[in-house]
Design goal:
- The structure is a single chain.
- By secondary structure, the protein is α/β, with parallel strands linked by helices.
- 31% of the residues lie in helices and 18% in strands.
- It has 2 domains: 236 residues, Alpha/Beta hydrolase fold, catalytic domain (Rossmann fold), CATH 3.40.50; 252 residues, Rossmann fold (3-Layer(aba) Sandwich), CATH 3.40.50.1820.
- 48% of the residues are buried.
Length: 568
């Protein structure tokens, strides 16, 4: 296939599996988009990823699949896409192909779940008496998934999943309809299947059984690929998708052993050929930033690299994200801290990450900070708080309320309140020094009431790439664009609050970590805060952009280990 030919430009639509979201495709999205060769859409089905619907609001499979159906419905009549479904997502793309056969050029399936009980040992079920023995929903057990669903994955991807997985409905009653798919519509779509040879959820034997019972047009077996092939073998999967979507694969069949399968859903296959193994496929060249920011696969190796110091005492570090982000942005740093022997907690603030609340439901910054305040109310030990960017304001509220539970507060290129002005002061100073054009494509909207005004803020792709993630990997840029949610600076609410006190906020030790290549909160503003407001200790990561936890996770981890040792 000539990938430089504009006529070969494809539109791939990636549909996640059970409990996941668009985020699980972040590596593949980056590869498919390289050099702007192809258009890629990864979307959240209802109640998944950061989609706003909650489980109780989804009454049917139609509700669940509506984001995909609405997307396909809105496409021009002459546009055809390649649907890619992972695991349970295979059902979604099958129904989509049945509904919009004229808009689907190819359907790609991989690693379907088995229906026997043993294949769901990594799940916890919810039953409803109305459905008898059929479970209505399930959730992956995060403690077990490193050995099952996420076997062969890097530690950071396991951590990312723990932060983002959500319970999902099974729709057993809806999907029991034998007329769900027809030969006249779904049966006319070209279909491809990926076998993952190291899948610990669906055995290779079961995958081959599925293929034998309903032969696709082409199959490939990817060596050393676990269930989450898009995370364990993204380059090989990308190569397969690009190869399959070209016309010369359209009439290719498959076989295993000596018995060829010459038909596929009722139509004859012109050519029968086995494609075995992906280890011969050329690897895509990745930017240097990817290699530098990857974590070791082995936990022992991870611990050795992270722990430059032998820790005197185990410390609990609480990691607080900034505006529009969530706990997920700490997915590289958290396992490093834990490998070094500490306890780390990354949480979603209200209306952030996969928290169920919506921004317009919050009555102010106290509601936004509530998950952090509730955590501190429950912990028995003292903690080190780490706040990134706007998270510095959340630290301020927590320090004022629970000063005796916080041994130190770390401001990572963050806004630092003082005890002289109202909490909004530092944000007002930042806004005064930041020209409107510096916000690029960030969107601001009024979403509060006259009594409780609230300005929402949502970072656009240009602001993300150029201001926040300027030294971060393209993978992490793709991840952010899938997971960011509208947030607010809460200036209106903060301007009405009283000053923090010396006895509360002022009694906690403060450490500031300067990020030398930050284009969102520039170094001169970071140092203005240090000089004007004052902190007890200053550290610097010269090569970090605004998202230091992603662009320089190891260096940030070393800073936090030093702080933990100093204040333990």
């Amino acid at each position: 296939m000539n990938e430089n030919n504009s006529n070969d430009k494809k539109h791939f639509v990636l549909v996640h599996g059970f409990g996941h979201g668009a985020w699980c495709w972040y590596k593949l999205v980056n590869l498919l988009k390289q050099n702007n060769r192809h258009r890629v859409t990864a979307l959240d089905l209802a109640g998944c990823g950061v989609h706003p619907s909650q489980l109780h609001q989804i009454s049917s499979f139609s509700d669940y699949a509506r984001p995909l159906m609405d997307f396909l419905s809105a496409l021009p009549d002459d546009e055809r896409v390649v649907l890619v479904g992972h695991s349970y997502g295979g059902i979604s793309i099958s129904v989509a192909a049945e509904t919009f056969p004229g808009k689907v050029s190819l359907a790609v399936f991989f690693v379907k779940r088995t229906s026997d009980e043993s294949s769901f040992m990594d799940c916890e079920f919810v039953f409803d008496p109305e459905f008898g023995d059929l479970p209505i929903s399930a959730a992956l057990r995060v403690d077990d998934m490193a050995d099952t669903v996420y076997s062969h994955c890097q530690l950071e991807d396991v951590e990312l999943a723990k932060m983002l997985l959500r319970p999902s409905l099974l729709f057993a009653k809806d999907l029991s309809n034998p007329g769900l798919l027809s030969q006249e519509r779904y049966g006319k779509i070209k279909r491809c299947y990926v076998i993952c040879e190291e899948d610990d959820v669906s055995s290779v034997e079961f995958q081959r059984q599925n293929i034998a019972e309903n032969p696709p047009d082409v199959v490939v077996s990817i060596a050393e690929a676990g269930h989450m092939v898009m995370l364990t073998r993204p380059q090989e999967l990308c190569h397969c998708l690009l190869d399959w979507s070209s016309s010369h694969r359209a009439d290719m069949g498959i076989y295993f052993g000596a018995q060829p399968l010459g038909t596929s859903f009722g139509h004859e296959v012109k050519e029968v050929k086995e494609i075995k193994g992906a280890d011969h496929m050329p690897m895509f060249t990745q930017p240097d930033a990817l290699a530098s920011s990857r974590l070791p696969r082995n936990m022992a190796e991870c611990g050795t690299k992270a722990s430059k110091y032998s820790i005197k005492q185990k410390v609990h570090l609480v990691l607080v994200h900034g505006a529009c982000h969530g706990a997920w942005c700490w997915y590289k740093v958290k396992p490093l801290l834990e490998a070094a022997g500490h306890h780390a907690t990354a949480l979603d603030l209200a209306a952030s990450g996969i928290d169920s609340r919506k921004l317009h439901e919050l009555r102010g910054v106290a509601d936004y900070t509530r998950p952090l305040l509730e955590l501190l109310a429950e912990v028995s030990e003292k903690v080190v708080l780490v706040g990134h960017s706007l998270g510095g304001i959340n630290l301020g509220l927590a320090m004022e309320m629970y000063p005796k539970k916080i041994v130190a507060a770390v401001f990572l290129t963050a806004f630092v309140p003082d005890i002289v002005h109202r909490p909004s002061y530092v944000l007002e100073q930042y806004n005064e020094r930041t020209p409107a054009e510096e916000w690029l494509d960030t969107k601001f909207l009024q979403c509060g009431t006259s009594e409780e005004p609230l300005t929402s803020m949502f970072f656009g792709p240009q602001f993300v790439s150029n201001k926040l993630y300027n030294l971060s990997s393209p993978e992490d840029v793709a991840l952010a664009n899938m997971l960011l949610r509208p947030s607010s600076l809460f200036i209106e609410d903060l301007s009405k609050k009283g000053e923090f006190t010396k006895e509360g906020y002022g009694s906690v030790k403060r450490v500031f970590i300067v990020c030398g290549q930050d284009k969102a909160i520039p170094v001169n503003f970071q140092r203005w805060q240090i000089e004007t407001i004052g902190v007890d200790k200053v550290m610097e990561i010269e090569t970090a952009d605004h998202m230091a936890m992603l662009s320089q996770p190891h260096k940030l981890c070393q800073c936090l280990l030093e702080i933990a040792e100093c204040y333990a």
